[in-house]
Amino acid sequence: MVSTGQRSSLREALTESAPSATGQPGAVGGGKTGAAAASKPAGGCENGKQVDARFVEFIDVEKRYGHFHAVRRLNLGIGRGEFLTFLGPSGSGKTTTLNMLAGFERPSQGVITLDGKSVDRLPPYERNIGMVFQNYALFPHMSVADNVAFPLSVRKAPKAEIGPRVIRALEMVKLERFKDRKPTQLSGGQQQRVALARALVFQPTLVLMDEPLGALDKKLREHMQIELKQIHEMLGVTIVYVTHDQSEALTMSDRVAIFENGAIVQIGTPDALYNEPATAFVAGFIGENNALDGIVERVDGNQCLVALPTGLTTTAMAIGDIRPGAAVQLAVRPERIVGSGEQADNRFRATVDGRIYHGNHQRLLARLPGGQVLTVKIGPDAATPAGETIDLGWRTADCRAFPAGVAPDDNTANTGSVS
Fold it and tell me: Helix (H, G, I), strand (E, B), or coil: what is residue 70?
């Protein structure tokens, strides 16, 4: 773990003599010097510090390729120092949005601002943005130190400053002893850290990451998630991260924006998205989920009674426009389904089909009358043989009913804001 003192010294070391987005020394993006310190940032307080809730803004931004809408009317604010993740399946618009912010794509409509200034017509190299890609994009003929020094060289930093700043950046990612090696002499995780040091060494106002851990194995990927989060907390730099891996997004992010069909369908903290999904898509994409189809029989305030195809009924929280007679999709997390003796508003008999062992827990496959199979999270030592009949249930508050077949509307504003 990184101590408070280490965080402070590393942040100060990297910001020393670093250029701002306008090329002026001292006015470092994400720091407390220059104009950023002179004016009180808007956006309130987060974790005891002031937050500029409009450090990055997308205002009515669209991206079209012919008749295809890659991004639909996006309005999004990103706070200074925030770690925001764009999460969604392939083709959902998350990478296109990142590329517009980086300057690799131009919006078909709308405005993108960085620190209050429009960047729509600025080329990528004038935006003072660090980039980390999935393939690392390191120069194989250069040493690790020369790779990290490259952004400083092209910005014509004084030669006397380059060496010390490179060493400090490599110390931050714990690779200073490998400074003379070539990238091919490093592991995948080490190469990823070199790419991260290179993206941070010139103290950018913003760091964009496009699937940077995609090429790593599971164990190394999980380790790097923790390292990235610690580096973010250490430096306070603003990070926008793209991934299709929901566990990665939940581990590292301050907020997560869920993309579907070119639109943000929900944005919020990881725990809010997991516990209070706004759509069936979000419920299914974030974490594990049991999906049940049904028809609404009755609506009572924010709750409804739903009939399942098997003739069973359950009460659920009504999310969105839920009316009697409407088709809905129910969502229940595996860990929210309980056995006999535990509190539940809805009770069912089920037959055990099998178990899946996960080390610290098991996934029980339980078949309801009529054939619907539920996944239930149970303890690692529970012994429930296949064919046994068991009692299952869940609370109304743990079952959410969403309108069936709802998709983003072309005419609906696509909005995410800091809250």
Answer: strand
Categorise residue 103: left if φ over 0, alpha if ψ from -120 to 50, beta otherwise.
Answer: left
**What single-letter amino acid sits at 90?**
S
Q: Token pair for residue 360?
A: 């610290």
Q: Could you tell me if 416 and 264 are in contact, meaning their C-beta atoms sit under 8 angstroms apart?
A: yes
* In-domain check, residue 102: yes
Tokens of 220: 């190394």
Pair (9, 100) in one structural domain: yes
Q: Examine residue 119 and state whether it is found in any structural domain, yes or no.
A: yes
What is this structure's pTM?
0.81
Would you state the structure tokens that stand for residue 184, as one six-digit string? 């091919």
Domain count of the fold of the chain: 2
393 and 252 share one domain? no
**34-60 per-residue burial string, b: 16 or more CB within 10 A, e: under 16:** eebeeeebebeeeeeeebbbbbbbbbe
Other beta carbons within 10 angstroms of residue 341's beta carbon come to: 7
Q: What range defines the domain where residue 368 resides?
A: 289-403
Q: pLDDT per position in the chain (419 positions), as tens? A: 444 444 444 455 454 434 333 333 222 233 333 323 322 333 444 444 445 668 999 999 999 999 999 999 999 999 999 999 999 999 999 999 999 999 999 999 999 999 999 998 899 888 889 999 878 789 999 999 999 999 999 888 899 999 999 999 999 888 999 999 999 999 888 898 899 999 989 888 899 999 888 777 888 888 888 888 988 988 889 999 999 988 899 999 999 999 999 999 999 999 999 999 999 999 999 988 999 999 999 999 999 999 998 888 999 999 999 999 999 999 999 999 998 878 899 999 999 998 888 888 889 899 998 788 999 998 887 777 888 899 999 999 999 999 987 654 443 445 554 43
Per the CB < 8 A criterion, the answer to whether 386 and 354 are in contact is: yes
Q: What are phi and psi of 144, to 5 degrees?
A: -60, -45
